Amino acid sequence: MKVITLKQPWATLIAEGLKEYEFRLWKLNYRGELLIHAGVGEDKEAMEKYKHLGLEFPHKRIIAKVVVEDCIKLTPEINNEINKLNPLVYGNYKRDGYAWKLTNITKLNIDKEVSGQQGLWNYNE
């Protein structure tokens, strides 16, 4: 199955259903199921911002399964609409690139450590 490795807290925010878009500079042609892997990296500033949520932020774990429904080219208008959906998560950022629309988010509890990779990669359970 296809996997993407994300830094924390972004991986957990997706697993918890708080973040339904993943932002990348590159267009994704793939549609379908995708595993979310929490890598070893952290966005320190964002970790501080979300610590009040009381969530666990595991590392080196596959923590969610999602469906990539769409890949939307970001325009200022689309970016503003996404920002309004959940200001806590999306803030008031000006982004370039693409927004991957994630649906059918399912949190997983897999205890096995898994090393991540850049880009999309395959995981055989």
Could you list some keywords that capture this structure?
single chain, Archaeosine Trna-guanine Transglycosylase, Chain: A, domain 4, 38% strand, 125 residues, 6-stranded mixed sheet, alpha+beta
List the helices and strands and how they pair.
Layout lengths: L1 E7 L1 H6 L5 E4 L7 E11 L1 H7 L10 E13 L2 H10 L1 H4 L7 E10 L12 E3 L3
Parallel strand pairs: 1-3
Antiparallel strand pairs: 1-6, 2-5, 3-4, 4-5
Describe the structure.
This protein is of the alpha+beta class. It has 4 helices and 6 strands, in the order βαββαβααββ. The radius of gyration is 14 Å and the shape is globular. The mean pLDDT is 95.
How would you state the average pLDDT, rounded? 95
- Across the major sheet, the strand order is 2-5-4-3-1-6
Q: State which percent range the strand residues make up.
A: 35-45%
What would you give as the CATH superfamily? Answer: Hypothetical protein
The rough form would be described as: globular
Structural class: alpha+beta
Return Rg in Å.
14 Å
- Outline the biggest β-sheet: 6 strands, mixed
Question: Which CATH class applies here?
Answer: Mainly Beta
Q: How many beta-strand elements?
A: 6
- Could you estimate the helical fraction of the residues in percent? 10-25%
The arrangement of helices and strands along the chain is EHEEHEHHEE
Name the CATH architecture: Roll
Poorly predicted spans: none
Q: Compute the number of structural domains.
A: 1
The DSSP helix count reads 4
- The CATH topology turns out to be Archaeosine Trna-guanine Transglycosylase, Chain: A, domain 4
* End-to-end distance: 8 Å
